[in-house]
User: Fold these one by one.
Assistant:
Number 1:
Amino acid sequence: MLKKIALLATALVALDATMAAAAPKVMKYTHYQPGREDQPKHAAALAFEKCVEGATSGSIDVQIFPAGQLGNATTALEGLRLGTVELAVVHDGGISSVYSPFDVFALPYIFPNHEVAYKVLDGDFGKEFADAMLKETSIRLLAYADNGIRHFTNSKHPIKTPDDLKGLKIRVQPAPVFISLVESLGASPSAIDWGELPAALAQGTVDGQENGVTNIMAASLYQSQKYATLDGHVYSLHAYLISDVFYQGLTDVEKKAVDTCVVEARDIHRNMTRATDLAAEKTLTDVGMEVYVPSADEIAAFRDLAQPVVRKHLEAAVGADWVEKLVKAVEAAGGSQ
């Protein structure tokens, strides 16, 4: 009888081991755009899910939670650090609350175009930056994607010069660097979380805001904003972030799948957002906004006011080293002021 019990116990242990080996590793993947395929973050997420699950023969189960279903950016980033959220695609302002050097990308008017930005982000600077973030936060930055080139909108009047911003209340991301940027141009900044922005604009809590066209369209901000100025003051980013606790628990095959598939997701995300950026004037005009496209000289007037102030802020907040490295990387990639 005892022998039978021992054999049964051995069999159950073996069965448990087999079941555990067969159970997929769940990857909770959250982002902050609507769960529609016309949204860059979600289209990229769906591609990533298909790619990873195929490449790992289902050993990773990717579960997508769009529209901030797992909480705001701060909650998601804390989850990444603890390993309770496996992957999140988070905007720059949110990331800087956990890793302040991310604010360096908000240096205004630093990237002249998409091509220069991609060279910098996908090159040595981007890798060095990601390695430093991993060391400090235990969050692994897998890829940089576009959050759209940021422009000013408002409900009061056209903005053609920095003087036109004076007296306006402008919503910014809850990040000091964006407060510094808006103040440098003479407007009054108000830090409001993304989820509360449409209501704040509709109720007149603020007069305007600054965002990429993708986000303006996704949240229908044009419904309460009459005027847009395509000044392109910040090349805003999303980052693909994975919990290093989770990543280190993957097999080599699974790690390779994640690393490969995130590039596919990144490129879908970038291409969709870039296309919207390049069509900004028509897109916003078609929904009833009055759009102003500043000349190079007019952009220079904004840059000459904003960049020195924000650079000084960044040098104090995140260190002159990161600022100088970014400026040099942009110059090496073919950008110039």
Number 2:
Amino acid sequence: MDRCGARITLTRMTTRRALLLGAAALPLAACGRFGSQSGDFDAPREERVACRTPEALTSFATLGGAPLRYEITGTEQSFNADPRFVDQLEAWAADWVAVSGLGPLTAVSTYGAHVDKCGSWHAAGRAFDFGVLTHADGTQVSCRYDTWGEDAPRLALYWRLAASLAKHFNYTLTYRYNEQHHNHIHIDNGVSGYDTFGFNEGSRTHVLLVQGVLRWVFGRDVPADGGFGQSTRDAARAVQQEYGITQRLASTEGWGAFLDAAAGAT
């Protein structure tokens, strides 16, 4: 038995994907279930392992100069993560503030970063779950799809944020990924690490994000099926042309330019 109580063998790991329960939460709540925020599917999809070794962790209590709050209680507190991952988060925060036009961050609510959760990038301190961002002008960008549902203005802000995150973190999991992500956006760098990357049309995660951005930020009529079919491809190309993006989405430059256009759209 592993520490989380799930019996996992190498044979099973290579023949099927285990359902991993429990989003990141307070460090003392390792391996537990936390109601609606349980269920991150955040290990590399083809390379799940039973447990991940924590990397050297550092404590951080702010992001982009804003205090971190535990989304469940609203309490300000610190969280632990790999220091290089914290640097990535800070680079994202600076980029988001610069591109979004919403002003400085004043609060960031989260379900957590490092947690002793077997099979998860949270265990390595290389994952983070976003709840709500608050900006200086009072604007809130909420990832709580579970509380507001099909609200167009909120969806536009949500997908602008998701686009910004996807520029920095290869795995950006939204409410479209599965029901377990209806109350937060999960990010990790489990596949890309600390390297740059472009769009992967074979990645369901990437395509779902592009389809959400195309529909709710750019107003394009595309499906939400996770497949890079002709209608999605054509809509993406139209947006690229509209914004003067000449690089391919598969390139780091083209992907970044597309996502910046989405994050900065008003």
